[in-house]
Amino acid sequence: MAVAVAAAVVAGVLVITDDGKGSGAGSAADAVQGPSGPAGSGGPDGSGGSGDPDGSGGSRKLVTPAHSSGPDGTTVVIGEAGAGHTLDLYEDLRCPPCAAFEQRVGPAIAEDIEDGTYKVSFHFAAILDKNLGGSSSTNALSALGAALDVSTDAFLDYKAALMSVKHHPQESEDSFSDDDYLLTVAQEVHALRTNASFRAAVREGTYDPWAKKAVAAFDASGVSGTPTVELDGSPLRGSGGSFPVTAAEFREAVNQRIKDD
What we know:
- There is one protein chain.
- By secondary structure, the protein is an alpha+beta fold.
- The protein has nine helices and five strands, in the order E-E-H-E-H-H-H-H-H-H-H-E-E-H.
- Helix 3 packs antiparallel against helix 4 (152-162).
- The relative contact order is 0.24.
């Protein structure tokens, strides 16, 4: 797939402050997961777009997770409120390059959040649901919303577990559409392992409408592929000109940008 990195900031980003906190076809070095929808559905080249056209989530009541903010609760920012920089991370939970990025760079990002280097604003797409069929991207995001309702730590840990080598499926597989699979992955997260409210929210699809709203916010952002990584509104680049594919490349790009500022 061709790399598609767009410098755009989502109008309805996911903002929270930290309260206490697979393998697959392709890798982080591969092309960004880009859509192939009709013109006007996403980025300036007609790419982008995913999920429900209006993000309404159907007739179900919109329930927003705790620790979310912004329009419809679709802004999730984790980190110190006073951090001088913001990292924007655009991902599709079904996307193999996004999973590889999480596996290689995610621990460095978690350390930087803890150190107050920047806060992170998370944006989620459902590009592969649209292009390949199924509901893995959106259903996994709904479950991630249930984890966010528990705590920001649970959100970060569950996101890492979903995108781990052990649990992330091939992009052609619709594994995340299965609630039982999502709950099995949640056993990796201490805060979720025996949390009855989390399990009920996953089973009942409590955050399905919220997930569709978050996807609609991504679609409106103008970003045309995932993963896209920006610091203070400008894309971060690795040695190959794409997003950084290793923790070392990522740290170098961040340090250089902060130094230049």
